[in-house]
Specification:
Blueprint: H1 2-48, H2 56-71, H3 82-89, H4 99-112, H5 119-130
Helix pairs in contact: 1-4, 1-5, 2-4, 4-5
Length: about 130
């Protein structure tokens, strides 16, 4: 019976992780889809309004301020980006929930004012802050 009990425990734990993985996967996938849709929309808005590019330096200053105030100086260096996520996976750092909105806002402002930003890095950082 001891072997049977081990298998039952294994199945229960496996089922729990499958459910949690599904919930987290759907949540992160939905947020990533929202990010990509927003990026496409903002790219179209920026192309229709070429003059927005002149405000790109102000957008950069705003992004820097947000990262300095709510990222680096908050006890969690959100400016490390994907390295912070990797450290969090290895248990060397704690990834705060606020990293997701900070990354989203930074990506939003960058694309809106005509800057270029990677979609994958932002999606990984937002997903890592949720998971």
């Amino acid at each position: 019976m001891d072997v049977l009990q081990k298998y039952k425990t294994f199945i229960v734990i496996l089922f729990k992780w499958i459910v949690w993985g599904g919930v987290i996967g759907v949540t992160i996938g939905s947020i990533t889809a929202f990010l990509l849709t927003t990026n496409d929309f903002l790219g179209d808005v920026r192309q229709a309004n070429f003059w927005l590019i002149f405000f790109l330096p102000l957008g950069g200053i705003a992004i820097g301020y947000i990262y300095m105030k709510y990222g680096m100086n908050s006890g969690n260096d959100a400016a490390k980006g994907n390295n912070l996520i990797i450290d969090g996976i290895h248990g060397k750092a704690k990834v705060l929930r606020r990293m997701g909105p900070i990354v989203y806002l930074g990506t939003f402002l960058t694309v809106f004012f005509g800057g270029s930003t990677g979609r994958e890095g932002a999606a990984i950082q937002m997903g890592g802050s949720i998971a």
